[in-house]
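Box 3.1. Reading complex inputs
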Amino acid sequence: MSGGAKLPVRVAEVVEVNELIKRFRFVSRDGSDLPAFSGGAHVVVEMDDHGTRRLNPYSLMSDPEDRSAYEISVRRDDQGRGGSLFLHRHVKPGMEFVLSHPMNLFPLDNRARKHLMIAGGIGITPFLAQIAQLSHFSGKFELHYSARSKPLGAYMDRLSSAHPGKVHCYFDNQSQQINLKTLLATQPIGTHLYVCGPKGMINWVLSTAESMGWPKLALHHEEFLAPGTGKPFEVQLAVSGKTITVGTAQSLLEAMEAAGVDAPYLCRGGACGQCETNVHKCDGTILHRDHWLTPEEHAEGCKIMPCVSRFEGKTLVIER
Amino acid sequence: MSLDFKPGAFSDFFRDETFRESFTYRNSPDAIRRFPFPFDRDEYMYSVNMEPHVPGRKGSVFEKTFDVDEHYVSEMIDRAKVLADDPLRCQSLPHMTLAGWDTLELIMEAKARDYPQWFSLTKEGDRWHWINRPLGIDHTFTFLDESTLPYGPFEYIMRQTQGDWTLQDERDGTLWLDAGVATSQADWSADFDIGMNFHEWHAPVPLAHDLGVFDRALKFLLKLQHGSPVRRFNWTMTVNPLLDTSPENYPKWGPTKTTLTQENLGRKQHLRVELQSLYRLPRSNAIAFDIRCYLGSFEQIVTVPKWGRRLHRIVRDLHPDLATYKGFIRNRPAMAEWLSKYDDGAPTSPGWWPED
């Protein structure tokens, strides 16, 4: 089940939110309703970038009850592998895409008495959908949102005016920082904490909360990894009987797909575990970049996550 | 608004029958041909026998997402009686209300699409108009507003839906049975299991743990995607066409296992098949689990020669731990003896369809 059922859509609108971020609105091609979804869910957008097939995950930011369209916001990454540049430079209203059904690796815990959200930069997007969903049921939340500067604080004005008193904004260029310890020390019992943003921020928030005695089950985070680039390498696929070369800006999963191998996947960001593959032989070093396998499994080297991880060395044989 | 059924008279299709006392439940000849016989070969062992829940062979129980058959109206009347006696048979923890709405939407949309002659759903924004003609229901309510329904969304739709259902919340890397209804169950209790996680509620199942079945099944289910439901079979044996074989009522039905004779066995002993299907729900990210029960008496099953031969071999050769867990170890010799008359030793074709 590589990817599961699909949603054929058309771009209805492209909006420049600020100098780094564009928003894309997708509607179904036949005009029917799209499925409702849960706040925190993402879709995988399938793109044909001038012959290169790209499948990138993006969090849905629109109201989950608005079944007329899905919206994503994409931050341009000039050093990335090219997915965001393609979306920013080439995607126009009217173009057709295929989306995965929404899936959620960052769901709200609906038992929480209160949802405390901490966002950094483009990490705001899943919270926009979660806040919309909570608003339908008068769910209690509080958002702390950092951006590099006021102009880069996407959707801050919209959030602040819709939810007065619940949204707190911080700007790096004004040396403002969340007073995390005080914030975490003053939450009511039954609060769940959610953080989405740069890796450093996630680590800071989670380690602070854990050191203050927050229960691990009340801490939630989402970190999508872009597959990243690296040196080309060769891989033997034992089941398919093929040998493939993974290019510099290509992931192992993408190289398998380009060779016509139907490999399973869901998130394509090292988080969900769907593409986990057994390693038959490894003469070299697997560059594990996922956060699905445990550190012990990384050390053993018996498994690899082809969506993000790479290889350096002489021979790699995997079961696919 | 109430949910008192006004069945528009049992039609030519919907049978007027009982699942208790008089036990007038029967399958029509057509229903026997479409009975979901669960054995695709002559032996049985646990496996994660999942397949995509996609529309299947025309006329079969797989044709539609939710099979509405000739027993629908009578099953719903039976469910209402069980719930009247024991309201705890249907429960939903507070955080599962949204999953209940998801389930209501899933069922209403599918039934209105697949059975327009019986069900109709029209929406004007949040105002939904639902017509269930077989049960005589015509309601208008506000989606996501519980106060506009006579029950919570889960119980409301479950009183109009065949099969027992559980709703699993996903958190902490496992599934939690946080809502459920059980009135046609093979000796398990929603009231007992509510709040348990996946490994807890499966703990009593023999052998499967050693086979690693539950670890694999959980891993599979956590990846279940919206829009891509899956299904599997399970089965057991029941004396009399009794839907409510609950642990709560075991003193009432347990002793009936001692009443079988070679003369009455074909009529009283039923193969009980569960067509289980699983759906990722959109708003709540929960997983809905539908356990749909089909009952077929031995004398009706053996009217299909292939099934008579195969059922004999399955019953005769089943691992004793499974026969014990499924509650028929004491009657196994009698069942095998009765079935042996319908097994001439001829080979059976692969697959479960009657005619192949």
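In summary: The first helix of chain A runs from residue 83 to 90.
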